[in-house]
Design goal:
264 residues, Rossmann fold, 2 domains, 38% helix, 19% strand
C-alpha cells in the first residue's frame, strides 16, 4: 500500500527496532493497549505477540483500517477516526499503555491534547511514542539548553519523560529526511494545580516569543506589579526565558490565574 504524504505516513518496518519498542513498554497479559496510527500493522503484530488483554488501534486511513481488519481479524479493535477527535471515546477502569509512531506533522498537537485531559494519570499508565528526533529533544529538554522551551515546560507539567534511543531513517518506508527518537512518557500522580492548560500555553508563548531577551519585558506584560512578583518568585529580571525552571513557569502561571480569575 502506497503511504499517503498528506497523512504523514512513514511506516516503521525494522523488526529488531519494533521488538525493542514493544519491550520498552513491558506489555503483559493484563494490559489494555492503545496503538495510535498502526499503519500496515508492523508494530501491532509485535504487540500482539505479548498477548495483551486487549489491543485497540486508532487508524484514520480507511484503506489501512480495512487492511488491518483483514490481517488481524478479531484480535484487535479498530477505530477508524482521527486520534484528535476521539480522546473521549476511551473509558477504562484502569490506566492503559499507549504506543505510537506519530505523524511528524501533528505529533506535538497529539501530545498537548493528551496533556489537556483531566485526570490523565488515572486513565493512562505510560506512553511509548516515536517522534521526530528534533521534537523529542524539545520535549525532554532541561533549562539552560538550546532546545528548552514551551513544549518542554508544558509536557513536564503532567509527565516525566526520557529518551530511550534514536531510530535511523533507513528503518522507515518511505525513508524520511530526519532521524526519529523513542520516548517514554509517564503521567505524574502529583503535579501543580493549573486551571486551564491554555493559560500555561499563553504564559510560555509570551516568554519564548522573545527567548533571547531578558524576562523583564514578558513579566511586565503579564503582571502590573511585575517587580514584586519577581521578588516573590526569587527570580532576576535579567535572566533569559531559557534560564527559568519548569516549576517557576508553573508558579508564574498560578499567579497569573490568581490575578485573572476570568481566565478559568
Amino acid at each position: 500500500m502506497k503511504p499517503k504524504k498528506s497523512l504523514g505516513q512513514n511506516f516503521l518496518n525494522n523488526s529488531k527496532v519494533l521488538i525493542e519498542i514493544v519491550n520498552s513498554g513491558n506489555v503483559s497479559k493484563n494490559d489494555v493497549v492503545l496503538e495510535i496510527g498502526p499503519g500496515t500493522g508492523n508494530l501491532t503484530e509485535k504487540i500482539l505477540n505479548k498477548n495483551p488483554k486487549n489491543l485497540i488501534v486508532v487508524e484514520k486511513d480507511k484503506e489501512l483500517s480495512i487492511l488491518l481488519k483483514k490481517k488481524f481479524g478479531g484480535e484487535i479493535e479498530i477505530i477508524n477516526k482521527d486520534i484528535l477527535e476521539c480522546y473521549n471515546d476511551f473509558n477504562f477502569n484502569f490506566p492503559i499503555k499507549v504506543f505510537g509512531n506519530l505523524p511528524y506533522n501533528i505529533s506535538t498537537k497529539i501530545l498537548t491534547s493528551w496533556i489537556k485531559i483531566k485526570n490523565l494519570e488515572k486513565l493512562y499508565k505510560k506512553f511509548i511514542l516515536v517522534f521526530q528526533k528534533e521534537v523529542a529533544e524539545r520535549i525532554i529538554a532541561k533549562e539552560n539548553t538550546k532546545n528548552y522551551g514551551r513544549l518542554s515546560i508544558i509536557t513536564s507539567w503532567k509527565m516525566e519523560g526520557k529518551k530511550l534511543f534514536d531510530i535511523s531513517p533507513d528503518y522507515f518506508f518511505p525513508k524520511p529526511k530526519v532521524w526519529s527518537s523513542l520516548l517514554i512518557l509517564e503521567p505524574k500522580e502529583i503535579y501543580k494545580k493549573i486551571y486551564k492548560t491554555e493559560n500555561l500555553e499563553h504564559i510560555t508563548n509570551i516568554f519564548f516569543n522573545q527567548r533571547r531577551k531578558m524576562i523583564k519585558k514578558p513579566m511586565k506584560q503579564i503582571f502590573k506589579n511585575y517587580e514584586d512578583i519577581a521578588k516573590q518568585l526569587n527570580i532576576s529580571l535579567n535572566l533569559r526565558p531559557h534560564n527559568i525552571s519548569k516549576d517557576r513557569y508553573l508558579e508564574i502561571c498560578q499567579l497569573y490565574e490568581k490575578f485573572n480569575l476570568t481566565n478559568f
